[in-house]
Amino acid sequence: MADSRGEGGGCCPPMDLFRSEEMHLVQLIIPIESAHLTVSYLGDLGLIQFKDLNSEKSPFQRTYAAQIKKCGEMARKLRFFKEQMEKAGVEPSKIPDPQADINMDDLEFKLGELEAELVEVNANDEKLQRAYNELVEYTLVLRKVTLLLLLSPGSAGEFFSSAHISAAAHQREIGSRQSGEGSLETPLLDQEISADSSKQVKLGFITGLVSKEKSLAFERIIFRATRGNVFLKQAAIEEPVTDPVSGEKVEKNVFVIFYSGERAKTKILKICDAFGANRYPFSEDANKQGQMITQVSGRLTEMKTTIDAGSLQRNSLLKTIGERYEQWNSLVVKKEKSVYHVLNTLSLDVTKKCLVGEGWSPVFASKQIQDALHRASIDSNSQVGSIFQLLDTKEAPPTYFQTNKFTSAFQEIVSAYGVAKYREANPAVYTIVTFPFLFAVMFGDWGHGICLLLATLVLVAREKKLSSQKLGDITAMAFGGRYTILMMSLFSIYTVLLLDLLIIAYVGLLKILPSIYTSAWYDILLCSFPRDSTTIGLIKVRDTYPFGVDPAWHGTRSELPFLNSLKMKMSILLGVAQMNLGIIMSYVNAIYFKSSLNIWFQFIPQMIFFNSLFGYLSVLIIMKWVSGSQADLYHVMIYMFLSPTDELGENQLFPGQKNTQMVLLLLALVAVPWMLFPKPFLLKREYEKTHQGQSYAPLPSTDESAELEAAHDGSHGGHGEFEFSEVFVHQMIHTIEFVLGAVSNTASYLRLWALSLAHSELSSVFYEKVLLLAWGFNNVFILIIGIIVFVFATVGVLLVMETLSAFLHALRLHWVEFQNKFYEGDGYSFIPFSFALIDFEEE
């Protein structure tokens, strides 16, 4: 657990990031009358992690289940208020009302009243809005149908009269053509008409609106259901209208359907209901049509006024709620509910009328916790004070690091691999430097580093403003790691200077001992160096290029061989140095936990094995640079294993090298059984010695005790039988992993060279094949296009994708190659009861 806290002029106590804070298990005995206030004060303090002493009980069987249910109901009402405020565009007040204590019963009653009032206002508004939307649709139907009738020959009355006459003539024509009552070819509707031909034909009509996307299907279904005995006209509405049922904007058509007979009417009505078509009455009389339009328009105006008044009332109610919302939400969600959750984890002592709680807290926080308990007893007028006492336990404490806004991101990088075991060495201390440095080795471009630096400085400069805003996922991720990116960009600029210094040293070392060079090799070097560089062969003729790699190398035949050789060897040196640091950290842990076995049978053989091979390789690299030798290091390392007794010849770098290699190889071979065999047997002997003549005894409080406990199948306190086979297999796996990992991890650091090469080559390709190519056309339009492509390629590929790639590879080098040498990462975080953390989770 990483936390950032500061008081007054600085952090108190001083921050120690190398090891987690010392923790102890405490017991609190709290009188019932002051329990609520005590837990509330401890939540403000945020320095104790309570243990659940009622884990065997279900949530409904706990003491304060009713209070939690009440808080949950009030939280539901507050969520309802927030949803309504968001819909209405009302922002809750950010500054809470500085009112004193709020009684929970009064607040519950107040919230209930406000909810009932708001629900009633919403229901009335919904009814009014639906009625208003229906009137709007009715107005459109009246106007559109009237327009349809006006476009027909004659007046509206003549249209209906002619429609009646046409329908009657159509029915008589069908009756004259009817050949028989039961003919299969006779339409069903014709049979119905002929069966009742004595009755007078009555023509009816239906008007309304239907969705535009359903209009074709609507017309087709009506035609088929009535056997074509209808007359249907549609007219599209230019603007989408609000549907009274769904409340959504929908494109609709106005329709008029003329039909004959009650059965046809019944079918049409059912089809209208199925398609969600809204029907509205329409008069045949032209005079009444005008009156209806006037009446509906007047009702629309009245309805609009009523809806506006209701909206003002609703907004006024929501503003009243918004003024107190933050205070209510803070009290109910962040405090009361969390306090009762903690109270439910405490054990109730009915006879003594008190609550007993246990929890982990940092050692430095004891005085602050006791002060909070004393304050709560006084403020609650309790006659009995709370009791604070320490408990002895063999349970592993949680891990707690105090971090600030700068170190928190690096601590999160380490904790993502695994939370540190209690009091073990924290890799984050070194990660603060090594992570951005290894990133910069792969990214290594001062121009792109400046671009990253400028972007990060914007995030840092707007830190206060952005921290109070809700950011997107990617933006929040970049903002959270702003100081990590800042370090990465600074190191990207720094490594360019460092590489320049290495090249200066490399060339300088080559000309220290010119007497050892043969004339043939001197000629080769003379030709390999660029004509315009700062040296002729190995002789310096003018000042070294002040920053970065001399551009005279660019485009020469020896550019890639020179830079690749340098970067490859540099990657191995950096990898060996960091892995040695990891092995040394295992020694630091062993010293701290007083584990002599881990020193003698883990640290020492690992150092011997690793440095006999790869430490020796690093020494050869440096000696080759210093001496200017032409020795083939690949040949030296391969034949060190295959033919250790053969003469080295021209690959010899120093006198006695063959004998030295034989000794180192022998030491590496001896180190493997040294790591494998002694430790399991010594653990077994220690176990037998500890348990000799007794059925129960505590295990020693050293690092070996953890291994013994692991062999006991989860036993605690020394119970169970020591499983030698499991311990031996575990040690064998650890040994094989280290031996094979020494080779693979060293090779893994070559990614520093590979990504550095990829970044430099991509930069060169984009510059030459995009920008310079566009410049060569001597065309302004092509030049502008080339600049745009170059900028997008640089930002998208080099500043985003390459940054992410180098970040992930640096992450892997720390997690796998560095941390697995010493970091167990099997601890668990310290998660205190804190209102500040609850607020962070809510955001």
Automatic annotation (TrEMBL):
One biological process term in Gene Ontology: vacuolar acidification
Keyword NAD: no
TM ranges: 437-462, 483-509, 570-592, 599-623, 660-677, 780-801
Family matches, as InterPro entries: V-ATPase_116kDa_su, V-type_ATPase_116kDa_su_euka
Localization in the cell: Membrane
Regions annotated as coiled coil: 104-131
Sorted UniProt keywords: Coiled coil, Hydrogen ion transport, Ion transport, Membrane, Transmembrane, Transmembrane helix, Transport
GO molecular function: ATPase binding; proton-transporting ATPase activity, rotational mechanism
Lipid bilayer topology: Multi-pass membrane protein
Family the UniProt entry places it in: Belongs to the V-ATPase 116 kDa subunit family.
Pfam families: V_ATPase_I (PF01496)
Name this polypeptide is given: V-type proton ATPase subunit a
GO terms for cellular component: vacuolar proton-transporting V-type ATPase, V0 domain
